[in-house]
Design a protein that fits this description.
alpha/beta, nine-stranded mixed β-sheet, four-stranded parallel β-sheet, 17 strands, globular
């Protein structure tokens, strides 16, 4: 059965009110003395005039940064701007640099539970002023999704729309820069228009909320052969309260070199340790191998089929809500906004 359906509403009522929040990024870059520099919405003026043929467009330049400089403080700023405007517009588009867009989209997903309108992140691999830029096409896709009436946080790129907590940048320069990892696309652009996959959309369970507090005391660690266990002690001494480990395969950890000892001490110190996989696709499953079961006995948390970006920002968000390790472990077993597949890793 084909679960995709044409979202006619976006085209039958083209004058929906869409707010564009700009943050800088390649899409709004222009050449400077030291290379490409991000600018504000003036770089997008020509494309916005075309979009105003179909939509009522308002613009707010929230910040002007290369996305490598966007930090949790900027996530909060964006989440607050979105929440403040949620009743004034039919949808919101956020233009953002591609390098950290997956982190921002995931973080904003958790900061805005039950958001009641479409919030769509997009950007480009080439500045909008370039003749063959992908920016115009990405903006058109993002605006169409923002006008779709489908609530949630999304990421639109290369005529595809994915959940914000499932998108990952997989190419540094190719136009198909983002993929939806372990989840179907929320929508695609075809010759028929915007085709929305209703089954891929997140389900709201209450009123929209702003919960924008996050902890920056989370470390993302890629496991390597022979990693010294003392690293976990050092992270605890530095004040980290959460660690996300990208382990091998289904969640393997080198145990012969006492790798588990450092993790055991971290858990005993009250540090929440989440184990995901270095493999981009599929799920970690700690029950399959002996090493994984030993991790579960220590009290680590399964990352299931979440992206590393989603696992990290979910842990940052959970700690920001003052959850204790037991509450965080229970939270990671729940699918809040489509970040995990029900049953994955159970």
């Amino acid at each position: 059965m084909n679960h995709y359906g044409l979202n006619l509403e976006a085209f039958m009522n083209p004058m929906k009110k869409i707010l564009l929040l700009t943050t800088g990024g390649t899409i709004a870059c222009a050449a400077g003395e030291e290379g490409l520099e991000p600018h504000g919405s003036r770089q997008l003026a020509g494309q916005l005039e075309q979009l105003r043929t179909y939509y009522q467009v308002a613009v707010d330049d929230v910040m002007c940064l290369d996305s490598s400089n966007i930090r949790p403080e900027e996530w909060q700023q964006l989440a607050r701007a979105i929440f403040a405007n949620r009743t004034k517009y039919d949808g919101i588009v956020v233009s953002h640099g591609t390098d950290t867009m997956a982190y921002t989209a995931s973080a904003v997903t958790f900061m805005l539970p039950n958001i009641n309108l479409p919030v769509v992140f997009t950007g480009s691999q080439l500045p909008i002023g370039e003749l063959l830029s992908d920016a115009p096409d990405n903006l058109r896709t993002a605006f169409a999704m923002a006008a779709s009436g489908c609530p949630g946080v999304f990421l639109a790129f290369d005529r595809k729309v994915m959940l914000g907590c499932r998108g990952v940048k997989v190419r540094a320069s190719g136009f198909s820069a983002f993929e939806s990892i372990n989840a179907s696309y929320a929508a695609r652009v075809t010759h028929e228009g915007l085709m929305v996959n209703r089954q891929a959309l997140p389900a709201n369970s209450g009123e929209p909320e702003l919960k924008d507090q996050v902890s920056q005391d989370v470390f993302l660690l890629k496991l390597t052969p022979g990693l010294r266990e003392e690293l976990f002690d050092a992270l605890g001494d530095m004040g980290y309260r959460g660690i996300v480990i990208e382990a091998f395969g289904l969640g393997g950890v080198n145990v012969l070199n006492r790798g588990l000892s450092g993790i055991r001490r971290a858990v005993k110190r009250g540090i929440s340790v989440v184990v995901t996989t270095q493999c981009l696709y599929d799920s970690s499953d700690l029950r399959v191998y002996q090493v994984g079961n030993r991790l579960l006995e220590l009290g680590v948390i399964q990352g299931r089929d979440m992206t590393s970006e989603a696992a990290m920002t979910k842990l940052m968000w959970a700690l920001g809500q003052d959850m204790n390790p037991q509450e965080i472990k229970a939270l990671f077993a729940r699918n809040l906004a489509g970040e995990i597949t029900p049953g994955a890793g159970d």
